[in-house]
Specification:
The complex is a heterotetramer. Chain B is built from 4 helices and 5 strands. By secondary structure, chain B is an alpha/beta fold. Chain B has one domain: DsrEFH-like (Hypothetical Protein Ychn, Chain: A, 3-Layer(aba) Sandwich). Chain B has a 5-stranded parallel β-sheet with strand order 4-3-2-1-5. Chain C is an alpha/beta fold. A 5-stranded parallel β-sheet of chain C has the order 4-3-2-1-5, sandwiched between helices. In chain C, helix 2 links the parallel strand 2 and strand 3. In chain C, helix 1 packs parallel to helix 2. The longest helix of chain C is centred in the first third of the chain and has 14 residues. In chain D, helix 2 links the parallel strand 2 and strand 3. The two termini of chain D are 25 Å apart. In chain D, 28% of the residues lie in helices and 17% in strands. Chain D has a 5-stranded parallel β-sheet with strand order 4-3-2-1-5. The chains are: A mainly alpha, B alpha/beta, C alpha/beta, D alpha/beta. Chains A and C meet through loops of A and helix 3 and helix 4 of C.
Chain lengths: 116, 97, 131, 128
């Protein structure tokens, strides 16, 4: 078992290890229930509008094996969810602070390298 | 106009071919590090017709490799100060590796 | 007077590139230019390791870079993505990634690739020193 | 041959030259990373595949041993970053027995004069 380094979540009786910034230690641990638990722990509520974006992100990662920067995220959301939602202001409202970062963390994508 | 820098020997894979494809009128080629071996007369890799008069070798790197007395006459010998002067003359430089 | 950015891909001691870059920087400054940024990428990130300990009769590349940073106010920027993969991290990144040690100290600074793009766009010259 | 120097909008584009094949070294991945970051910052970016870099585009690549990530998903992602100009040296394809039909993305080929003209026309470029 991976030693939970900093913070653990318990989801359906299972321990899920997260690092000091709240990212999953093992991406295989991700499930929709884990995402809900992570969000709740961060004081966020995931509505269907949030889930649409998380699914776009997971699809993006499946296709390209990388988490998108903000611009390509907006483009991906526009392609899947339409012009109205494919706007950075819409994503900012759903995931305040940094949509590309916060949403990627909740979607179970790898921790970004602070490269931008 | 571009200053091209090359650090590999002329016998290494494909670099000289790609460099020559990219070499335009008015460009200059400076041989540094192991690229200095291309300064030997008759070294394979460089097409004399393309680069005659527009090619130099870095003095310190040629000297440390025992090449200084052997440099082909069409090739200029340039010291580190001259290298910097070349970068003043050429707004762009490309390093091939 | 021109402003220069140097891009260093070469690891210290493995190839000549890091030394060529240092000598170029010193020669450029001697001619009155500013070497504003050195960006370490690829294996070049190892130049930033504070744990470098070469024999006393060889040039100490880490110290030479540091001196350049201190005397010429050259920013010594290390790509964080390339560094993390290779164990080149500062205290902040070590904390972020739950690592027990770190290997980078000022004047070296971990930054993103965006700083390289910025250097390419804003300096008069960019010279690359490959491995 | 396509004229590489005409488009005024491209004269300030950043040209990333990719000369290394996938998997054997990190050059290709690290070069594409620079292209992606520049594009994420809103900079116009073009890629030129020269030398062994043309192998980056070969159709049918997969992940490597020990699950080493490939670079082909990164290349497919280029369009999401609005990187659309992909130049390939025709002579370097010829030298390797390849044609554009072997490549995974639509590209514009350049003859040697075109390669030199492209290099000369772009004030900002980096080779990986």
């Amino acid at each position: 078992m991976t030693m939970p380094s900093s913070q653990t979540l318990t989801v359906d009786g299972r321990f899920v290890a997260r690092d000091s910034e709240g990212y999953l230690v093992s991406l295989d641990d991700w499930s929709p229930e884990v995402a809900e638990a992570m969000a709740q722990d961060e004081g966020r509520e995931l509505t269907p509008a949030h889930w649409e974006v998380l699914n776009v992100l997971r699809d993006f990662y499946r296709r390209y094996e990388a988490a998108p920067a903000m611009r390509p995220l907006v483009k991906a959301v526009r392609q899947s969810l339409g012009e109205e939602k494919g706007q950075s202001i819409y994503l900012m409202r759903l995931f305040p602070e940094s949509p590309a970062k916060v949403a990627a963390r909740l979607a179970g994508l790898p921790k970004p390298t602070n490269c931008l | 106009m571009t200053l091209h820098l090359i650090i590999r020997t002329p016998h290494s894979s494909g670099i000289f071919a790609d460099l020559l494809d990219a070499f335009a009128d008015g460009d200059y080629l400076l041989l540094i590090e192991d690229g200095c071996y291309a300064a030997l007369p008759g070294a394979a890799g460089l097409d004399d017709a393309v680069v005659a008069g527009r090619i130099g070798v870095l003095r310190e790197d040629a000297e440390s490799r025992g090449l200084l007395a052997r440099v082909a006459p069409s090739i200029e010998i340039v010291d580190m100060d001259g290298f910097v002067a070349l970068t003043e003359r050429f707004p762009k430089s490309l390093s091939w590796f | 007077m021109l402003s220069y950015a140097l891009l260093v891909h070469a690891a210290p001691y493995s190839t000549q590139g890091a030394l060529s870059a240092l000598r170029f920087a010193e020669a450029a400054i001697a001619r009155g230019h500013r070497v504003e940024t050195v960006f370490f990428y690829h294996d070049g990130v190892h130049n930033a390791s504070t744990l470098m300990a070469p024999p006393q009769d060889e040039v100490h590349l880490g110290e030479r870079w540091k001196r350049l940073g201190e005397t010429a106010q050259t920013a010594l920027l290390v790509c964080v993505a390339a560094g993390l993969r290779r164990g080149i991290v500062d205290g902040t990144e070590a904390t972020r990634h739950d690592l027990a040690q770190y290997s980078v100290e000022p004047p070296f600074e971990l930054t993103g690739i965006g700083q390289l793009v910025d250097a390419v766009l804003t300096h008069d010259r960019l010279i690359t020193f490959p491995p | 041959m396509t004229d590489t120097t005409q488009s005024a909008s491209s004269s300030e584009a950043l040209l990333i030259v990719l000369r290394h094949p996938p998997h054997g070294s990190s050059w290709l991945r690290e070069g594409i990373d620079v292209a992606l970051v520049a594009a994420a910052f809103g900079r116009e970016v073009e890629l030129l595949f020269q030398g062994d870099g043309v192998f980056a585009l070969l159709e049918g690549q997969a992940a490597g041993a020990l699950d080493q990530k490939g670079t082909h998903p990164q290349l497919k992602m280029l369009e999401m970053y609005d990187i659309e100009r992909l130049w390939v040296s025709q002579r370097d394809l010829d030298r390797r027995g390849l044609t554009v039909d072997d490549l995974m993305l639509p590209v514009t080929t350049l003859d040697p004069d075109g390669v030199a003209a492209l290099h000369a026309a772009r004030p900002l470029s980096l080779i990986f």
